[in-house]
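Take a look at the protein record below and flag anything odd:
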Amino acid sequence: TLILMNKAAGDLSGDSAMAATRLQTGMKRLDYLFTQFRVILTYTRLMFFPVGQNLDYDYPIYRSIAEPGVILSLMTLLAVCSAFVWIFWRFRKRQPLVKVIFFGAAWFFITLSIESSIIPIVDVIFEHRVYLPSAGLFLAVSFSLLLLIEKQRSPRVNIAILFLAVMAVLTLTGLTYARNNVWSDRLSLWQDVVSKSPGKARGYNYLGIAHYEKGNLDSAIEAYKKSVSLNPSYANAYSNLGIAHFENGQIDEAINAFRNAIRVNPMHADAHYNLGLAYGEKGMMREAIIEMNKGVMLKK
């Protein structure tokens, strides 16, 4: 029984951050588009100033192009794109490197448009979406520096550019090391998430799982309760709460949590099965068999 319960604790968080990026949402297409104007600038800022990174952003949704943040972001993006087009058209024949710079910039915007356009996705921002586009941005930046060095006749200016580049590399290396420390442990990662997205239920659910895996049942229960208080329709968090209560010997509380999970999602196979286990601990064998059979049938 305990093996099944432990297995469920890992499996019940089925709305993982990666999977959620592909779920459908009822968000309007224009709302998603307006929000993406801001998101693209956030991605760009992270490329040059990677501070405040977050695995699970609680990003605001923008619903009108007239909002100051949206219109300023749109104007900035149009200005940047226009500048790249003008530079390419003006210098493409005299400066071959300009073609590479334009290609890098085009690569960034085109590959980013796959998930930052008008097709709504549940999570409007995820840092991993910029991994592939960033190759084009870094290509454009590096070749721009080469072109600048090539055009400069002053050794002092070239030395200054080289010094700034070295300082940028060292700074980014230090920030990467610091961020890796956050990612080194699941508990520290999700503590970082809830500190930056305190109003989002998913972070607390995963924080609860991290505490559960370390045997901190009271802390896990507290995190799961916070999760369902933020989102009363979060079936997985209810089910995980039930598991933590079960492991903590609080069978009545576990039963209540599993029932809430089933109330929210009647097709939640693990909640049915684990509710059956909890009924079994109470000696309610008929109910236990019924719920466990439901769990098994829903798993098929």
User: Anything to note?
Assistant: Residues 270 and 295 are 6 Å apart (CA to CA). The two ends are 20 Å apart (CA to CA).
